[in-house]
Amino acid sequence: MKTLLAGKKILFGICGSIAAYKAAEWVRELVKAEAEVSVVMTEAATHFVSGLTFASLSGRRVYTGMFEKDAGEEMTHITLARECDLFVIAPATAQTIAKLAHGFADDLLSVLVLAGNTKVLVFPAMNSNMYCHKATQANLFKLQEYGYTVIEPEQGKLACGDDGVGRLVDWKTAREKIVSVFTRQDLQGQTVLISAGPTWESYDPARLLSNRSSGKMGYALARVAKRRGARVILVSGPSAIDPPPGVEMINVMTGIEMHDAILAKYESADIVVMAAAVSDYRPGKKMKQKVKKSGTSIELELIPNPDILKILGYKKKKAIRPLLVGFAAESKGHVEEGRRKLKEKNLDLIVINDIIGTDTGFGADTNEVSLIDRNYQLEKLPLRSKEECAEMIWDKIVNLNR
């Protein structure tokens, strides 16, 4: 399966900022994703990173001037602008932002923006005082009026030593903004509530009951939903995964906390996807001190946690909204168990995971799931990365949601 960026022609503009070195990683990752990247550098940018670096990473000629000697009769500012599917400017300096805001065309990068008719993503990076200055803010506002997308820089330690807003966003955030340009926005206007990860049920200060869920599938679902235009609320048990950019994150630990967080947000959701592996049981009594090893057997009372999905199905009853999606982690009788849970819990769709496969289930980077919809139609998805699997699950949800 091709990546979403395969074959996309991306024009990558680099301005004179110390953050230009980060653009090298971005270009490398875009090429790895099979995009065709052409780099345009301002004269100032070449003082921070050489054009040879970007030529090596992109495998293509790097453009730095309006009137290059080897250009021949080629009208670079027209051909590059016509041929690209997306124009990324990163890092975008205050100088370049001012030029673009006022229609200046005194270097190749600014001319390409004026000559082009494609989506433009602007990633500012500069000293925090420069970024917050009224002139810069007015210029950024004007760019947005023109239809350019401006991605606000991050807070943090800057190269000048200051601490504030102005850092170029990291690649994970940039990747989502870039990929979303080529992604259909079929979840626009929808609020999606997703649960992910395991829960931890403490027995004493040192021990707990849990499961092997990593949260990878739920996080992939959240990332793809955000990319497709949804407002995403992600309720996650303990996980080592970084939150997907742009989602509303609610961290919980226990099954009870997961129950409370989901019920608090349920009424605002158009679609609920319960991908979390909530512990079925919790210790009946939580010990305040660590239980010492004695060499003899001990008895542990377990009491059931709330079945959140069943509660949501009961609340939903025959209502159309929210659309309710459940996950079932099974080791045998997958389809039979899936159909049973679909009916018992009043779901619109159930996603069935094989948890004993070597390439599927908990902790794996790939997944191979089966879908059963409210009409009891079965669809088996091929083995794919969890992000690709999430794309196919959302395709199914969108169709059910029409």
Describe what this molecule looks like in 3D:
The chain has 402 residues and is α/β, with parallel strands linked by helices. It has two domains: 9-181, Rossmann fold, CATH 3.40.50.1950; 191-281 and 301-401, CoaB-like (Rossmann fold, 3-Layer(aba) Sandwich). 33% of the residues lie in helices and 24% in strands. It is built from 13 helices and 22 strands. It has helices at 20-32, 51-58, 76-83, 94-101, 108-115, 128-132, 134-145, 171-181, 216-227, 255-266, 308-316, 334-344, 386-401, and strands spanning 9-14, 36-41, 62-63, 86-92, 119-124, 149-150, 154-157, 163-167, 191-196, 201-204, 207-209, 231-236, 248-251, 271-274, 281-283, 302-304, 323-330, 349-354, 366-367, 370-373, 378-380, 384-385. It has an eight-stranded mixed β-sheet, sandwiched between helices. Helix 1 links the parallel strand 1 (9-14) and strand 2 (36-41). Helix 3 crosses helix 5 (108-115) and helix 9 packs across helix 13. The two termini are 26 Å apart. The mean pLDDT is 92.
What is this structure's SSE topology?
Layout: E1 9-14, H1 20-32, E2 36-41, H2 51-58, E3 62-63, H3 76-83, E4 86-92, H4 94-101, H5 108-115, E5 119-124, H6 128-132, H7 134-145, E6 149-150, E7 154-157, E8 163-167, H8 171-181, E9 191-196, E10 201-204, E11 207-209, H9 216-227, E12 231-236, E13 248-251, H10 255-266, E14 271-274, E15 281-283, E16 302-304, H11 308-316, E17 323-330, H12 334-344, E18 349-354, E19 366-367, E20 370-373, E21 378-380, E22 384-385, H13 386-401
Parallel strand pairs: 1-2, 1-4, 2-3, 4-5, 5-6, 9-12, 9-14, 12-13, 14-17, 17-18
Antiparallel strand pairs: 7-8, 10-11, 15-16, 18-20, 19-22, 20-21
